């Protein structure tokens, strides 16, 4: 996974790099493909913002969080991405669970109510 970071009105420190790498590693367990993750950290009106954008061929996720502390903002943004991933996974599982419940026990009687003359497309 390719990770890029950008800072605006902030000093880029090793501690911030470590925090972003830690948070990215936490998110990597959800994304098994070769997507790109972009981090933007900035200060606006005294609030510290952390923004994550993840892009892959099959999905996109975006989260933005702010607080008084940048480290807390990063944690909040990661939580938002995790919620989006869980919601999409639950929706996917629910959709596939419904289609797999259809079982035809007697194929001969399955078409007894079918009338070809009524089904004209």
From TrEMBL:
Top-rank taxon, per record: Bacteria
Coiled coil stretches, renumbered: none
CDD domains listed in its UniProt record: RaiA
Name recorded for this polypeptide: Ribosomal subunit interface protein
């Amino acid at each position: 996974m390719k990770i890029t970071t950008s800072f605006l009105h902030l000093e880029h420190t090793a501690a911030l790099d470590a925090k972003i790498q830690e948070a990215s590693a936490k998110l990597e367990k959800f994304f098994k493909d070769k997507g790109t993750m972009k981090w933007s950290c900035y200060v606006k009106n005294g609030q510290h913002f952390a923004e994550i954008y993840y892009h892959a061929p099959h999905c996109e996720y975006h989260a933005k969080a702010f607080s008084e502390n940048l480290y807390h903002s990063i944690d909040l943004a990661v939580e938002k991405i995790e919620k989006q991933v869980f919601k999409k996974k639950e929706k996917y599982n629910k959709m596939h669970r419904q289609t797999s419940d259809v079982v035809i026990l007697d194929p001969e009687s399955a078409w007894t109510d079918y009338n070809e003359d009524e089904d004209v497309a």
